[in-house]
Specification:
- This protein is mainly β.
- The protein has 1 helix and 11 strands; from the N terminus they run αβββββββββββ.
- The protein has an 11-stranded mixed β-barrel with strand order 1-2-3-4-5-6-7-8-9-10-11.
- The two termini are 33 Å apart.
């Protein structure tokens, strides 16, 4: 029970995150598609694709394409090496619309376990970021991310959750570990807290919809983004 309470506290303590500075508030929608394919006992592939809208769902602002190759240490632990292409479409005053491109190399470690019937996953990710900037030279920076996710089956007495309704709770913390002065000037970058309801149709397919609170530390102004997210998970 102590372990159960500890991990639930990690997530719940970040919901309703507030930032004590001048804060801009936004509303947007995200579409998240994630596929994990197991090639054999030791190797697999990772792919996630995301579309994110601008404030008030005006247009598509962000496109992310993130493939990777995964090595399974065992049933509970795996490591992944991957690449990310990120495109951001900004409207910048008299300069008109600008597309900024960022390339990343990333490494991650995932540990999975259960607390009673709850499936828990912890993800530790390091990113090397090569980012394009308006009016400035391109920058290189590194960022560390910690992510924890709980899948809570809403059926009673479920030992191996393979089908049915579930609740999802997750939180992710972002930290600038190199060249923070070229970004927002802070070690802490952002926090993303998320809650959703979903349905597991089979071992291979989940569909969920929920609310994500993205609190971002800025160089001068902070932002809170209220996000409605639709997520599709496939596993082969």
């Amino acid at each position: 029970m102590k372990r159960n309470s500890f991990f639930l506290l990690i997530v719940l303590c970040f919901f309703g995150t507030t930032i004590n500075a001048q804060t801009n508030y936004q509303n947007s929608g995200w579409l998240f598609l994630l596929n994990n394919t197991k090639i054999n006992k030791k190797w697999g592939t990772h792919l996630d694709i995301q579309l994110r809208s601008a404030d008030n769902w005006n247009n598509v602002k962000n496109f992310l394409f993130r493939p990777g190759i995964t090595y399974f240490l065992n049933d509970k632990n795996d490591i992944t090496l991957g690449y990310l292409l990120s495109e951001t479409h900004n409207q910048v005053d008299d300069l008109g619309e600008h597309k900024l491109t960022e390339h990343r190399i990333w490494q991650q470690y995932i540990h999975k376990h259960k607390i009673s019937t709850i499936n828990v996953s912890h993800r530790f990710r390091l990113e090397q970021r090569f980012a394009e900037k308006i009016r400035n030279e391109d920058i290189f920076a590194q960022r560390f991310r910690y992510f924890v996710r709980f899948i809570i089956p809403l059926k009673k007495e479920v030992k191996n959750f393979e089908e049915g309704l579930f609740a999802a709770l997750q939180n992710e913390l972002f930290f600038n570990v190199q060249n923070k002065d070229k970004l927002n000037g802070h070690f802490f970058d952002q926090n993303r807290a998320y809650g959703a309801l979903g349905y597991r149709f089979s071992k291979k397919f989940d569909l969920e919809a929920g609310y994500l609170n993205q609190a971002v530390k800025g160089a001068s102004n902070n932002s809170v983004n209220n996000v409605i997210q639709l997520a599709v998970y496939t596993r082969f």
